[in-house]
Amino acid sequence: MKKIEIKTNKKSIKILLIIAIIILAIPSIIYIITGHSILEFYCNYNYFLLLNINPILDGIIFFGIFSLICILYIIIIKNYKKIFKNSKEIIKYIIIISALFTLILPMTSTDIFYYISTGWSEAKYKINPYYTSVYELKQENDINDDEILNKIPKVWQGQKIVYGPIWPLICKLLTTLSFGSLPLALIIFKIFNLCLHLLNCILIKKLSNKRLFTLIYALNPLILFEGLTNVHNDMLLIFLIFLALYIVIKKKNIILSIIVLAIATAVKYVAILIVPFVVIYYFRKEKPLKRIMYAIGLSIIFLLTIIVTYLLYAKDLQVIQGIFTQQQKFAKSLTLSIYLIINPNIASKATTIFIAIFISFYLIEIIIHLFKKNVTLKNSSRIAYTAILTFLLIVITNFQVWYIMWLIPLLMYQNKKNIKSTINLTIASELACTIFFVLGEGYIYGHYFFGIMITLWIILNLLKTNKFVEIKIDENME
User: Fold this and answer.
1) 299-338, pLDDT tens digit by residue?
2) If you placed Cys at 153, which of 110, 320, 336, 420 could pair as Cys (CB 3.0 to 4.6 Å)?
3) Which residues contact 86 (CB under 8 A, 6 or more apart)?
């Protein structure tokens, strides 16, 4: 099959993507300019926001618009040399696209309001979010007139913080700036993520020295929608991972890099999966025994950094309960299908088996890599990438589409197959979310989502016309 080439004016492709995003943003823009309150905004998986016209129509419209955005994204990535004259043009375009996605209200996730309410409960009422939930705070103090606390979604009301201590600290600082205003708090969090997004673009350019990788990240619909529209904290996580990689690869400072990775782990624990491979890569010229000795020393620094962050909130070991909370939920995952179709008990046993298998293979890979003579940035990052991907699709029982962002910091060091497969996964996962527009977000539909996502992912990977990214990988990029 012949390659798809741009036949229309290159400027029209860029404008068409902007128009598609504006169309996606229209309900949010109308909602804002008509004076509706953010406090009334409970439109999870509802494209028309408060209108509730028809859930099937919601799904069709979202699927259609988002599919168009993804197609245009692919065309731009494939033809970026023809579409953009220089780096300055790319920067301007990234800022415009990012700003548009930032304007859209979080239509498919309420997590941002959990962040805001838990941050405000600590900033205003001085509670420890690891020991007191927003619901308990409101009940114990008879608080009924605080718009931020009243906005917390029901699903989160009784939930103590489930993230590492760096995130509630950030939430506290950002909500303090809002002075108790819910709309201002939402704006502050969105601006915070927008700044992180632009910083990530800079770090990618410095790490890869390629405009292509910057565009793959900066214009990716999943990154933009989940990071800037839905304002997930994974944007901070991948920023810290990018920063750690930049420090170790470009600045040759392993100690500072490990400290930054420890801070990333104190946002979401998945960052720990990257640490061993960063250490082994840095000491690749040393003999295995010296690698082990250096690894032990850096492990102490890593653990001490983690402990210091947890001491900000710790009264006892309950402070680490959040690490296990999410894994106890069955939603949007392979194990949910086992849970619903076969048996809950078998699902629990399967989860334990999957975790044991993952840990075993992960440790084996570390040991093999530790004694490997030819260690490169390429093979180190590819093993770490595979570990995170396996963790996402097999181990996690409460999979969410924005978790796919965890793969992005390692993407520039992958081969063509992995790069294209990851881009396909970002597209397939967001399109699969259409099922929740139609049926609702109940966990019982999570296995439909997972099945649709995997099916779409396989189809996209098999399509011959999907050779859309002509990537020349610099195998010596260190």
Assistant:
1) 999 999 999 999 999 998 888 887 777 777 788 888 988 9
2) 110
3) none
Query: Is 422 inside any structural domain?
Result: no
Find residue 398's DSSP bridge partners.
Answer: 331
Query: Is residue 173 a part of any domain in this protein?
Result: no
- pTM: predicted TM-score of the whole model, two decimal places: 0.94
Q: 3-state DSSP call for residue 79?
A: coil
Q: How many domains does the structure of the chain reveal?
A: 1
What's the length of the chain? 478
Q: In terms of residue numbers, what domain contains 293?
A: 236-317
Residue 83 has pLDDT above 70, yes or no: yes
The Cα–Cα gap between 205 and 213 comes to 7
Q: Is residue 119 part of a domain?
A: no
Q: Is 398 helix (H, G, I), strand (E, B) or coil?
A: strand
Closest CA to 477 of 209, 199, 81, 203: 209
- Residue 291: CB partners within 8 Å, gap ≥ 6? 279, 280, 283, 370
Evaluate whether residue 282 is within a structural domain: yes
Q: Read out DSSP for 155-213? A: HHHTPPP-S-THHHHHHHHHHHTTTT-HHHHHHHHHHHHHHHHHHHHHHHHHHH--HHH
3-state helix, strand, coil in the chain (%, to 5): 75, 0, 25
Tokens, residue 78: 């494939």
pLDDT tens, position by position, 390-399: 999 999 999 9
Question: Phi and psi of 301, rounded to 5°?
Answer: -60, -45
* Close Cβ partners of 429 (under 8 Å, ≥ 6 residues apart): 222, 401, 404, 453, 457
